[in-house]
Amino acid sequence: MTALLPLLLLAGPARPAVLAFDRVDLVSEDPAAWLNYDVPMLGVNATTVAVRWLEQVKVSWRLPVDGLSLGTSLSSQSVFWEHPVWAAAGLSAGAGVQSALLLPRGAFADLAWRRGRFRAAVGVGAVSGATWTDLDWTAWDVVPTLGIGVGRRVAP
């Protein structure tokens, strides 16, 4: 073991991680189906609404490219770029693409506010009806989006 120490020191510092935890979105912006289609059905079938809420909870991971992140949930995956527009106020704007089981099916854009561990965002999303069994990108739904998340602390 002690013979490996000089080799480890010569190797230099460890490379930064490819993925680093950013946040968990309790209400996800992509694909925004839960907010727009499931929540209105709460009085009719609360169990389905609860299960679909769990499916849309998204974990976001920071990528090595500044401002780029990867979102993962049971219902979708997304790649998202976020850029500060008023850093002192914690405001940023962003845009991303989303997929279902890695099938590209939509895009979204937002304006977000971050303070400490909290993030809130409003925006718009466009989602196609494409599936792996029906590769049809001709029909699109354009819907409002809302994101509410908690995660790593961001300085004000």
- The strand count comes to 7
SSE pattern? HEHHEEEEEE
Placed side by side, the strands forming the largest sheet appear as: 1-2-3-4-5-6-7
Main beta-sheet strand count, sense and barrel state: 7 strands, antiparallel, barrel
Structural class, from helix and strand content?
Answer: alpha+beta
| Chain oligomer state | single chain
How many helices? The count is 3
Query: Can you give the helix content as a percent range?
Result: 10-25%
Number of domains: 1
Radius of gyration: 19 Å
Low-confidence stretches: 1-15
| Overall residue-averaged pLDDT value | 88
Principal-axes geometry comes out as globular
Distance between the termini: 44 Å
Amount of beta strand: over 45%
Question: What would your notes on this structure say?
Answer:
The protein has 156 residues and is of the alpha+beta class. It has one domain. The protein is 16% helix and 51% strand. It has a seven-stranded antiparallel β-barrel with strand order 1-2-3-4-5-6-7. The N terminus is likely disordered.
Give a concise summary:
The chain is of the alpha+beta class and 156 residues long. The chain is globular, with a radius of gyration of 19 Å.
Give the helices and strands, then pairings.
Blueprint: H1 4-11, E1 20-27, H2 33-38, H3 46-56, E2 58-62, E3 68-72, E4 77-86, E5 91-100, E6 103-128, E7 140-154
Antiparallel strand pairs: 1-2, 1-7, 2-3, 3-4, 4-5, 5-6, 6-7
